[in-house]
Amino acid sequence: MPSFRRLGRARTCPICNRPGRCMLSTDATMAICARVASGEGRGKCGWLHKLTGRKLVESQCLWQPSRKSRNGPPHFEQVVEHFRVSSRDSRLCHYAQRLRVRALSLRRLGIGWDGTAWCFPMYDATRSVIGMHRLHRKGNSLRVPQSQHGLFIPRGFDNRAESVFVCVGPTNCAGLLDFGLTVVGKPIANRADALLAAFLEGKEVNIVSAHHQTSMDGAQRCLETVAPCVSNARIVTIPGGHGSISDWRKETASDRHVERWIAACKRLQTTK
Which of 37, 44, 80, 117 is deepest in the core (most CB within 10 A)? Predict the structure, then answer.
């Protein structure tokens, strides 16, 4: 049994969501809640709860003090390692098959499983982990509390690459990695475009967009943000009117289609 620490006023209990009297184990896998009962009582301290899923992710963040300030934002490196999944994990293999991407590409993006959702680390322009992106099986996504919006940067990103493709979300990023491209993913709604501009300074940038208006508008705003910092920038659309790289791969994408698309992207006019 691990040791426990009282949460105090600065942190909230993952069970009752209130500060003060509750306790959390030092490995952040169990909590003793003074307000919510369970089958395991711990005397006057409260009741023992084993943490799973989102509550486990949130509790892992509670004991991650900032290097600059104890009250600053948490560091997520240990959380990423805690939930990282093996390439042989059957759940990852099934998930990759459903997306029609390689499990290796998802692994390069640091994919993890927290018990209820898939997790992907988000990075700043210096490749420090600044947040966690959670993607549920039904497709809805959200950030872990205290996360900042960041970039999805695959392991082994080639800094020497002159041309980089940019897409929204980690699963689209995995699909482009399968094509052998140099790729960076970003969150929806242009929330990390300034980081993207700093990270890709001096490179040629291909911003991937779906055909619907919302995606095109987001790609245009991203283009306007990164254009002053990069050598060239252009918007490229997913072929066949598909809404995502995964949809394109499921329907028609073959090696020949991909080669033709990449060649067509290079012929498009850039902003500079």
Answer: 117
Domain-located, residue 70: no
Alpha carbons 268 and 272: distance in angstroms, whole number: 12
Distance, in Å, from the CA atom of 118 to the CA atom of 133, rounded to the nearest integer, reads: 8
Query: What are the Cα distances from residue 148, in Å, to 17, 69, 71, 164?
Result: 21, 17, 16, 23
> Phi then psi for 132, rounded to 5 degrees?
-130, 130
- Say whether both 125 and 14 belong to one domain: no
Asked if residue 153 and residue 109 are part of one domain, the reply reads yes
For residue 195, give Cα distances in angstroms to 26, 127, 129, 148, 198.
33, 10, 13, 11, 5
What residues contact 200, with CB distance under 8 A and at least 6 apart? 164, 166, 184, 226, 229, 230
Residue 140 sits in the same domain as residue 259? yes
| Cα–Cα distance list, 46 to 10, 33, 38, 136 (Å) | 19, 5, 9, 32
For residues 209 and 218, give the distance between their C-alpha atoms in angstroms, rounded to a whole number.
Answer: 8
Q: Residue 212 is part of a domain; what is its CATH number?
A: 3.40.1360.10
Residues spanned by the domain of 12: 4-51
Identify whether 8 is part of a domain: yes
In this structure, are residues 13 and 46 in contact, taking their beta carbons and an 8 Å threshold? no
In terms of Cβ atoms closer than 10 Å to its own Cβ (0-12, 13-18, 19+), residue 8 is: exposed
Rounded Cα distance between 234 and 249, Å, is 22
Predicted local confidence at residue 106, as pLDDT: 94
pLDDT tens string 51-107: 876 566 566 555 444 344 344 445 677 777 777 776 567 889 999 988 889 999 999
